[in-house]
Structures are given as C-alpha cells and as structure tokens.
Design goal:
The complex is a heterotrimer of chains A (497), B (120) and C (502).
Chain A lengths: L1 H18 L7 H26 L2 E4 L10 E4 L1 H28 L5 H20 L3 H19 L6 H31 L4 H7 L7 H17 L7 H9 L2 H26 L2 H7 L2 H21 L4 H21 L3 H32 L10 H4 L1 H15 L5 H15 L5 H25 L11 H5 L6 H19 L2 H15 L3
Antiparallel strand pairs in A: 1-2
Helix pairs in contact in A: 1-2, 1-4, 2-3, 2-4, 3-4, 3-10, 3-14, 3-20, 3-21, 4-5, 5-6, 5-10, 6-8, 6-9, 8-10, 9-10, 9-13, 10-13, 10-14, 12-13, 12-18, 13-14, 14-16, 14-17, 14-20, 14-21, 16-18, 16-20, 17-20
Chain B lengths: L1 H5 L1 H19 L3 H23 L22 H31 L4 H10 L1
Helix pairs in contact in B: 2-3, 3-4
Chain C lengths: L2 E3 L2 H18 L4 H21 L1 H5 L3 E10 L2 E7 L1 H28 L4 H19 L4 H19 L5 H33 L17 H14 L11 H4 L5 H10 L1 H17 L1 H7 L1 H22 L3 H22 L2 H32 L10 H4 L1 H15 L5 H16 L2 H27 L9 H5 L9 H19 L2 H15 L3
Parallel strand pairs in C: 1-2
Antiparallel strand pairs in C: 2-3
The chains are: A mainly alpha (497), B mainly alpha (120), C mainly alpha (502).
Chain lengths: 497, 120, 502
C-alpha cells in the first residue's frame, strides 16, 4: 500500500502522456483520480500507523539493509497526509488555471510533469533509504524546474534556471553527504544508520556529512540566507506551481532535514554535539524578521507571498532549534498550517490572476464585491497568517511562543509578535483594499479587462480555495485534531528527550 | 606530503568540485554554468567510485563456475549509475531552459538578461 | 459557589451571529432584515436576563464550548460582573437598533446590510467577552470585536473615513498583538493556566515582582479599548463613523469591553490582595487620574460635538479604571456602577448628536445656538445625559461618583478625591454651555438658509424612530438613580467575590 501511494501518481503521469494520443482532454481528470487515491491511501495509512506503530514495505522482498524499504512512522504518515491533501486540492484547482497560464497545448505535458512532481514528493516522505531519498529528491526537483519554467512569462525561465543551479548544488551536497555516510558505515538504510552512527559521533567525516546535509537541504527549502531563488520562482511560476512549491515542496525538504537530523543522526548529535541550534536560532530570527520586513514593501501579490514564505520557514526552523517537545510540536503544526494558509492564499491570488490577468496588488482593489467567495477565503487565510486566534496560524504561534518560553529563549516571543504585527500590516492593507477599494501602491485606470470581468471563478477553482480557508478555521478551533498527531510525531523525533 | 599523496583521489575530486562550482557561480554565460554544474556533479560521482575501489580488488562480476575472489564494492557503482542518469536529466532540462531563454531574451549572458528584466 | 452548566451563554452569543447570517441574506428586503436585528436583540436580552435569577442566588453558570488546545479552551463563565456588562450591552442594543434604523434610513446610507450584519457580529463578540471564563476566550472575542467594527467605522467609504478607520485598527490590533498577547503568553507560562479565578491566578506561583509588574503593564498597554492615555487616539479617530456606531462604540461594545477586561485582569487574574501587596495599582490609578483630567481639558477645546463627546468618554472611562485601581470595596463598586450609568448617559448624548445631525444637519457646537427651541425633546434628553455625566442627583451619574469618592477616602488616596472634584467641574464646563446655548441663545441667522429662517420658531424634531430611543435612555439615566436595585445587588456580589467578603 505504501508503495502504491508513490506508484499511482507515476503511473498517472504515464497514462496522461498516453492520453495525449486520444482526442479526449482528460488529463486533469486522471490526475485528480490519482491524487485522490493517494490522499485516501495516506489517510488509511495514517490510521494504520497510529494503531500499529511503524509499518514498512520492502522493495522486491529484499530485507533491509540490503534492499530499499519504504517506512511510515508517526512523523512520515503525518507529513504524507498533509502533502497528499495539498496535492489533491491543487490538482482539483489546476484545470482552468493551467489552461489560462500555460496554454491549452502544453497543458497535457504540464499535467504529466505535475504528476511526476507529486510522485517525487511522496517518495521523499515514505522512503527509508538515504540514496533513495536523493533519487526522489531529484525527481521532484527536476519536475519542479520544468514546471516553473512552463509558464508563458519569460522571467519564469530565468527563475527556473537559477533554481536549477542552486537546487542541484543542494542535491549534490546531499549526495556527497550520503557518500560520506556510506564510506564510514557501509549502509544506506536510515534505521541501520541510526544504529551505527552513535559509535562514530566523534568522527570528522560524520560531522562533515551532517554539515553537507544541513546546507544542501537548507538550500532546497530556502532557509535564510539561501532563499534567493525562492523569490523569483514563486512569483514567476504558474499559480499552482507557486502554491505547491510553498505548500508542499518546501515542507517535504524540511521533512527530509528532520529525518536526517533526528532519525538518522539522532537528537543528541544534532542538537547537543553540534552547535546547530545556535546557528538555527540566528537564521530563524533573521528569516522571520527579514522576511516580514521585506514583505511590507512588495507590490506584486506573489512576491509578497514569497517573502512571507521565507519568514514562515523561519518559524519552522525556530521550532526545531528550540529542542523541546512544545517547540517541535509547534514546528510540525506549522508545517500543516502554513501549507493550508499559503496554499489557500496562492490559490485565491491565482483566482484573481485568472480573472484579471494582473499580478499587482492593485488588481485586488474592490474585488471583494466581484469575487466575494475567493476574497473571503483570501481574507481568512490572511488573518490566519497574522495569527488571529481561532485560526490555524494562532495555534502554531502559540506553541512556538510557549516553547520559546520553556526553552528559556523568551527573546523569541517579541520576534514572533513583531512578525505578526508586520504580517498584520501588509495583510490588512490588502484586505482593506479588497473590500474598500482604496488605491494601494500604484493603480492605473481600470483596464478593459478589469471592467469586463465580474463574477467568481469556476467551481473547480473555487472549491479548493474555500476548502483550504475552511480548514484554516477548522484547525484553528478544533486544533486538537491535528495536535494529537503532531505531538506523537514530535515525541518520536525527540526520542527519549 | 603523505597527507596529500595518500589521499590523492579525494583531492582530485575536491579540485574538480571547486572548478565546477566556480564555473557555476562566476561565469555569466549560461552554457558555461551548465558545464560547471556537470563538472561539479561528476566530481562527486568520481568520489563515490573511488571509495568503492579495493586494493588488489577485481571487477565485481561473479566468476563463471563460482569461485572466491576479492571484489571491489559494486554498490557505489550502482548508485552512480543512477546518479549519472539524474545528472543527464538535469543537464537536459538545463539546456532546454537555456535554449528557451535564448529565444526569449536573445542572449545567454546572465548580466544582460538581468538588465533586460530590470527594464521590463 | 455552586456552578451550573448551561448553554445559555453560548446561545446568547450565537443569537446575533445567526442574525448576521440572516441579515446577509435579506439584503434585498430591508424590513425583513431589520426584523432580524430587532428579534436577535430582544432574544439576546431575554437570554441574558434569564441567567439573572441564578446568578443573583449566588450561582455561576459555566459552559465549555470547545477545547481548542490543551490549556486553551473556549469557555464561558457567567458571574455577576459578566452579567452586569451583558445586561447593559444587550439592553442598549435593542434601543440602538431602532435608532440605527431611523438614522440610516433618514440619511439613506449605502451598504446598510453590511452595517447591520457587522453590528450583530460585534454584539455577539461583546457577549463573548462578557461571559468569558479565561483569558484566551476573552482575547478571541476582543479581536473579533476589533475586526468586525472596522467596516462600521469605515462605513462611509470616504478617504477620511478610511483613514480614521485605519488608525482605529492600527491602534487596537497593534497594541493587542504587541502587548496583550505577550502578557497572555507570560501569564500562561508562569501561572500555568488562563482561567479567571476569584482571587487571581498568580498566587502561589512564586513569580517575581518585576515580572508581575511587566505583565501588569503589558496588559494595561494592550487593553487599548479602555482608552487610557496615551493609547487613546483611536477613539476620536473613530468619530468618522455614523453616529449609531459611535453610540455603540462609546457606550456599549468597544470601550466597555476595554474597561471590563481591565477589571477582569485586575480582580481575577492578579487579584486585589496581590496588587495591594505589589503596589502597581497605584500607578494605574494615577495614570487613570491623569487621563480623566487631561481628556476633560481637551474636550473643552473641541468644537465638533462628537469630538467633545469622544474626549468626554475617554475621561469617563478612566473613572472605571480609577475605581478598580484603588482596590477597595467602595471604589470597585463605584467603577462597576460607572459602567452602567455612563453607558446610559453617553448613549443618550450620542443619540442626540445624531438626531441633531439628521434633523438640522449641524455637527459643531458653535452652530447649536437656539436649537433647543427647534428640538426641545432632543435637547431635554441631552441635558439629562449631561447632568448625569456631571454627576448631579437625582441622576444615575451621581451614584457612581458617590461610591468612587467614598472609595478614594477608604483607600486613603485623597488626591484622587481632588481629581474627582476637578473633573466634575470640568464636565460642567464643557457640557453646560451647550445646554445654555441651545435653550437660551438666539439662533445665529444663516444668510444662505432663508428657507429655514422663516420656520425659525417651529419645532422640527428628529424622526420618531430616533426620538423615542434617546428619550428612553435618558429616562434610564434618571431611573438608575431611583431604582438601582438589581445593579447594586450584582455589584455587591462582584465586590464580595473580588475581595473575599465586604
């Protein structure tokens, strides 16, 4: 079953390409079915893991550490559900949006590549083997490079190329790290490594490998100061790619780092033997504050959301650095919540772009009347980013703040609050502009395009947006639902701490 | 001196990696960046292969008729085959992007492209 | 104290939320839409009143709505303090609703659906604050009030309205995120809980005085809705709102929420004994005293009627703060009573301001000469309200000032007594001239207004729908002096709970 989660999207990619021969435009339908299946499977697996503990699948029946295994424990099943859900929701949204932004003819290849990306992401989450992780990492990344460059904007090509260069550096560092680990332990299986590594904690090779992993993966999830590629990629890519980039890809790479740090190397090494915590604190603080500050200055919707993502990744890293249960729970909850919030924001912004073709914040002026539902969802997701209580964003900020106080790093509470205030500034400006139609940065006279377009986007685009916004509220009020999963996952990662 | 000579394989890999890295970062020509990327990746692949070598080891192919032999480690070879494929795919995507960039901008110099982006 | 579990508080909150949805859907049928508002207001008051007997007998009603996170629950607890606030707010909403209908229809305002819907949500959130059982619930509803009153303040949609509304929300949201939220974090971290308890939750937690002081001042800075200086500027800025909104903000929802939360923090988070030991409350008392006097002085300089009323409100609110900060039974009683009497008095004053605007299109005090002849009922009500603010018997305002004065003596803070007397004089200085000008001065002839000059002698009152509410609240202000029974009983219970026997 675990393998099916990954195989189905891959197979769907294949099917989609085949379907291009026929005259039926069913590629997004195939994609929808595939991601729905994966999502349902992930839920089933989540439930199974939580009753049975760790479950695994051996490829070809080869017993690890000789063979490759797929493993699901509390942590990976939690993340898998999140990623599968996001992938499913975005697939539902994709049809009309892609048609508009990429063009009818290329929509088919786009869908196939998208399925490959999704398969890669799932693979990263379920694999239990280090080299297999590298392979899936590259599968996902390659699909990502191509997808980002698929838009009609030429800036997307440059953004994609930059991402390619930097992303490959990251992946190669990761590969080198794997090589070092193999060199001294002779195994590639994560569980096996976890057993063998403690004896070698003093080895400089291990230390270097750890450094390589951290830097390589940090490049991939855009931790400050390795975040520059994210800004152009987010803003130039087609909307659904920006959405899945923010909501899924970055998170999966964080997952990979967490796996490496806590499952393979173990928390004693990662947090105590190596002063990674201090570094992470500094970078997280820089990301949070820098991200928020720079967001305020943006006039392009997507760039604004991109900078905001940099800050949000900072939150997640902060929770890791805090090295306590509350902080880690906060990070995991934020992985979920940010996926929902940012996904919702990007998709809602995409709705506006779909209708008006404009990317500037001024395009949102007065949209509250023309597109009430998508703008309501945008406002809800925006308020959730600010951290208004009863929204999901508040929950993760609460845990991070309390975790910071518990760890004695009370100085982070003002940092979190400052960034909340800054978020409030830029989101409130946008929300006000949506409903009260005030001129923001620069507004030209209403173009013909703007005047003609009234009414909402198609239902297939609207429902995902509403679903994500609705979940922001649901997980803000009934937060105990995801909390039970996140807490177990955090306990697992932090081991006997 | 032995430090360098004993570990000459690692040093070569490091030098190659740095050459590739430099090419990727410093050169504004996009094709040269791709070349740099390839050199960078290949260096790591070479590293893997060198660690699979065994002193007095032989090719990791089972002798016909059975029989004992001291084999070099075949696992890294397998890993590298996969990695080579990955590398080729990355190069292919990169080159495709470069072609399209050239079509869109008329140049493959990074600085000129940035200037064009600033204007638009 | 016996506790009952009953979903009544939840229903009281939900009634107007449901109404808001129905209002949203009835946008095309104004009468139906207005019906929802009135029905919700009446039902809400009924539900709140239904809880009165149980609370008067000494019981507390509790209800857990949702355990959002362990340690953070959305929970209601109805005690005497919450009931005072709840009763005042829900009763006044009924009256304000009728007034609103008269006002927006006379002026034919646009976006009426949004207006009534946001009003309903604001009242739902106000009930939420009144009945909250812990700091988390309070914070949630506090923020909801801020967010849903923004469209009300910005209602007119003009650049001026939006800039006023923006200042409004920057102040309120900014300070609550920057100050109140860290105070809540710290409280949770140090006290382990956010639930209100009768003698405070910090007892036995062994927290240092310095840290407690920090938390105390973070709370005071963060509860900006109480308009303590220097965080008061949002109030005058919010005067760009339509007058019924100002009446709601300044008598019922927003500002009373602010002082209510301050009282809750002082009495039920810190506790009278702890604060008396620490001595921080004295500082608060003096800040409040400063606000009282300074705001009154500024009020003297304002020519715009609503602006003068706004500064008067800032001043009057600090009476409540002052009373609680003195920490003695009499003073606390005075501050609770002040919540009630000020609500009735101020809402009357704002209603009259709105009536004057609708009937005579005048907003400045200098234009009000002789208007008492044109609008006798309105100005009579204004006089009643003004006298209540000044604190003259037989009006309700006298009651609260009496208790506050006694409280000052009881606490041994005689300078406070001086402040009370000074501000009474200042109140007279800025209210009485208006009354005098309205009744005893000749209307200034307006050369462009020849049509009106002919009718100078006739009575042209505000529309009936606006008139009877303001008369009703004026009677209320008088009535509170004569029949304060219910409120006195509740007040006694509050003081008892807070000080452990009076």
């Amino acid at each position: 079953m675990i393998a099916l989660v990954v195989i189905i999207p891959l197979f769907a990619a294949f099917l989609i390409t085949l379907s291009g021969v026929t005259k039926y435009r069913i590629h997004w339908h195939i994609a929808g079915v595939a991601t729905f299946f994966s999502f349902a499977a992930s839920l089933y697996l989540l439930q199974e893991v939580f009753s049975a503990g760790r479950i695994s699948y051996w490829f070809g029946g080869w017993e690890p550490p000789w063979g490759i295994e797929f493993v699901l424990d509390y942590f990976s099943s939690f993340i898998l559900v999140i990623i599968a859900f996001v992938a499913f929701v975005i697939t539902m949204y994709a049809g009309p949006s892609v048609k508009k932004e990429v063009g009818e003819e290329r929509s088919l290849t786009f869908a196939a590549l998208y399925m490959t990306l999704v398969a890669g992401l799932f693979g990263i989450v379920v694999t239990g083997d280090m080299f297999n992780l590298y392979v899936f990492l590259e599968i996902a990344s390659l699909a990502g490079y191509a997808l980002i460059g698929a838009g009609t904007k030429r800036g997307a090509l440059v953004a994609s190329f930059n991402y390619l260069i930097l992303g490959t550096i990251g992946a190669v560092f990761f590969l080198l790290g794997v090589g070092y680990l193999y060199m001294v332990t002779g195994t590639l299986n994560m569980a096996d490594l976890a057993v063998r590594l403690p004896a070698l904690y003093d080895s400089r090779v291990i230390l270097t490998a750890f450094a390589l992993f951290t830097v390589g993966l940090s490049l991939k999830f855009a931790l400050f100061p390795l975040h520059t590629w994210l800004l152009s990629a987010h803003s130039q890519a087609p909307t659904i790619i920006s959405a899945i980039l923010a909501a899924a890809v970055l998170k999966v790479n964080v997952y990979a780092l967490l796996r490496v740090m806590f499952t393979v190397f173990g928390w004693e090494f990662s947090l105590q033997a190596v002063p990674v915590s201090t570094l992470m604190y500094l970078l997280a603080a820089a990301a949070i504050i820098g991200g928020s500050l720079l967001t305020v200055a943006q006039t392009n919707i997507k760039r604004m959301l991109a900078f905001s993502s940099v800050g949000q990744i900072g939150y997640i890293v902060l929770g890791i650095a805090l090295a306590n249960h509350t902080g880690m729970t906060g990070s995991l909850m934020h992985i979920l919540n940010h996926a929902l919030m940012k996904g919702g924001l990007f998709l809602a912004a995409g709705a506006v772009i779909y209708k008006t073709g404009l990317y500037e914040l001024s395009a949102l002026k007065g949209m509250g009347r023309k597109m009430p539902y998508s703008m309501a969802a945008f406002s809800v997701a925006g308020l959730s980013m600010v951290g208004v209580p009863l929204t999901a964003g508040f929950v993760s900020k609460w845990y991070l703040a309390v975790g910071a106080l518990e760890a004695g790093m009370g100085v982070f509470v003002p940092v979190i609050l400052l960034s909340s205030l800054l978020s409030a500034t830029y989101f409130w400006r946008v929300i006000e502009s949506i409903y009260f139609g005030v001129k923001t940065a620069d507004t030209g006279p209403e173009t013909k395009e703007q005047q003609g377009n009234t009414g909402e986007v198609p239902v297939s685009m609207l429902l995902p947006v509403l679903a994500l916004a609705g979940l922001c509220i649901l997980f803000g009020t009934a937060a105990f639902i995801p909390l039970s999963f996140a807490e177990r996952a955090a306990s697992l990662l932090l081991g006997g701490m | 001196m032995e430090f360098v000579l004993d570990r000459y394989n690692y040093w070569i890999c490091i030098v190659l990696m740095m050459i590739g890295f430099y090419g990727m970062i410093a050169d504004p020509n996009l094709i040269k960046k791709v070349i740099g990327l390839n050199i960078f990746q290949t260096a790591v692949l070479l590293f893997f292969i060198t660690i699979s070598a065994r002193k007095d080891g032989t090719l990791p192919i089972l002798l016909t008729g059975g029989g004992e032999a001291f084999y070099a480690n075949p696992l890294p070879h397998v890993l590298i085959l996969t990695a080579i494929v990955v590398g080729v795919s990355v190069t292919a995507v990169a080159l495709a992007l470069v072609i399209r960039i050239h079509r869109a901008y008329g140049t493959i110099d990074e600085n000129k492209i940035a200037a064009l982006e600033q204007e638009s | 104290m016996e506790t009952l579990t009953s979903p009544l508080p939840l229903y009281a909150v939900l009634v107007s939320l449901l109404a808001a949805v129905l209002i949203g859907f009835s946008g095309q049928k104004p009468n139906l839409r207005e019906f929802w508002t009135i029905a919700a207001a009446v039902i809400k008051f009924g539900l709140v009143a239904a809880m009165l007997p149980a609370v008067l007998q000494g019981r507390i009603i509790e209800f857990t709505v949702l355990p959002v996170l362990p340690g953070l629950e959305l929970k209601f607890k109805v005690d005497a303090l919450g009931l005072v606030f709840g009763l005042v707010a829900s009763f006044l909403w009924i009256i304000t609703s009728f007034y609103s209908i008269g006002y927006v229809r006379s002026l034919q305002e646009k976006a009426q659906t949004r207006y009534f819907a946001c009003f309903a949500i604001a009242l739902a959130a106000t009930m939420g604050v009144a009945f909250s059982a812990n700091l988390f619930t309070t914070f949630v509803f506090y923020e909801i009030i801020t967010l849903c009153t923004f469209p009300l303040v910005a209602h007119k949609g003009t650049a001026e309205a939006l800039s006023g509304a923006r200042r409004y929300i920057v102040y309120l949201l900014g300070t609550s995120l920057a100050f109140q939220l860290p105070a809540i974090f710290l409280t949770y971290h140090l006290a382990g809980t956010l639930d209100f308890a009768h003698q405070g939750i910090f007892q036995g937690a062994g927290v240092s005085a310095g840290l407690l002081g920090l938390i105390f001042f973070l709370f005071m800075a963060g509860i900006t809705k109480a308009a303590i200086m220097p965080f008061h500027s949002w109030l005058p800025a919010a005067m760009v709102a339509p007058t019924p909104v100002s009446a709601l903000l300044h008598a019922v929802a927003v500002v009373k929420t602010g002082v209510f939360v301050v009282i809750k923090v002082v009495l039920h988070v810190f506790g009278v004994d702890l604060l008396a030991d620490l001595g921080f409350a004295v500082i608060l008392a003096y800040v409040a005293a400063f606000t009282i006097v300074a705001a009154s002085v500024i009020a003297l300089t304002q020519d715009n009627l609503k602006a003068r009323l706004a500064y008067s409100t800032i001043s009057q609110l600090s009476y409540v703060i002052l009373g609680v900060a003195l920490l003695t039974p009499m003073a606390i009683a005075g501050s609770i009573l002040q919540i009630v009497v000020h609500a009735f008095g101020k809402i009357t004053l704002f209603f009259t301001a709105g009536a004057i605007y609708v009937a005579a299109h005048k907003t400045n005090i200098s234009e009000l000469n002789g208007i008492g002849r044109q609008m006798p009922f309105t100005m009579a009500a204004f006089t009643v309200g003004a006298l209540s603010m000044i604190g003259i018997p037989p009006l309700g305002g006298f009651l609260s000032k009496w208790y506050l004065g006694l409280g000052a003596v009881e606490a041994g803070q005689l300078p406070v007594l001086l402040v009370l007397m000074t501000s009474t004089v200042l109140n007279a200085c800025y209210f009485l001239p208006i009354v005098y000008a309205a009744f005893f001065k000749e209307p200034t002839p307006d050369p462009q207004d020849s049509h009106h000059q002919e009718e100078a002698g006739q009575i042209r009152e505000a529309p009936v729908m606006m008139l009877w509410p303001l008369l009703l609240t004026a009677f209320g202000a008088i009535g509170l002096f004569f029949v304060p029974a219910v409120f006195l009983d509740l007040t006694r219970m509050i003081v008892q709970a807070a000080t452990g026997g009076s």
